[in-house]
Amino acid sequence: MYCSSCGGAVARGLSYCNKCGAKLSANESVEKAPGLKPDFLVFSIMATFIFGTAVITMLMGVMRVILGLPVEAVLGFGTIPFLLMLILEAVFIRLLLRNRATSETNNKTLAKQQETNELDAARPRVLPEPIPSVTEHTTRAFEPVYHDRKSK
Question: What is the C-alpha to C-alpha distance for residues 50 and 43, in angstroms, rounded to an integer?
């Protein structure tokens, strides 16, 4: 995300820019992920299966015992709500998978945006080459001069 005033990179969720102090607009500072919460979708899948199975079983029992329908008719009428329950389960599972996919893409884009604020990779430390001494070459370049000492 970037500031609309100075163009500097801004982390998500901030209401003011770190560089220029300008107030960020509401659509920039808060971006909500579309979709339902995964916990709600998982609960819906489980509740649909448990409640749907119980209702279909009771419906088939009522058709057989109270209405006195033959087994073939009971199974025929029982498949319709069972197929509806399967379709509803498939819709919930699709919503759950789509929600998970969008959250993963949001995490990837957030990670890419955070990479811009990170420092470059650390380079291995290398000691510099030693600087040659000034006196190293001057003292060895001259030939020694020998003086005869004269004694008095």
Answer: 11
Show the domain range for 17: 1-31
Quick check: 20 and 6 in contact, CB under 8 A? yes
Residue 72 has a pLDDT of: 92
The count of domains in the chain is 2
Model-level pTM?
0.47
Helices within 15-37 (DSSP H only)? 26-29
Q: What does residue 16 show for φ and ψ, rounded to 5 degrees? A: -130, 150
What pLDDT does residue 33 have? 45
How distant, in Å, are the alpha carbons of 53, 71, 89, 91, 103 from that of 68?
21, 9, 31, 35, 52
- 81: nearest Cα among 56, 49, 109, 45: 56
Using alpha carbons, select from 130, 38, 21 the residue that is nearest to residue 93: 38
The answer as to whether 132 is a domain residue is: no
Q: Please enumerate in sequence order all residues whose Cβ is within 8 A of that of 92, keeping only pairs 6 or more positions apart, or say none.
A: 41, 44, 45, 48
The SS3 assignment for 38 reads: helix
Q: For tokens 């199975």, what's the residue?
A: 53
75 shares a domain with 38: yes
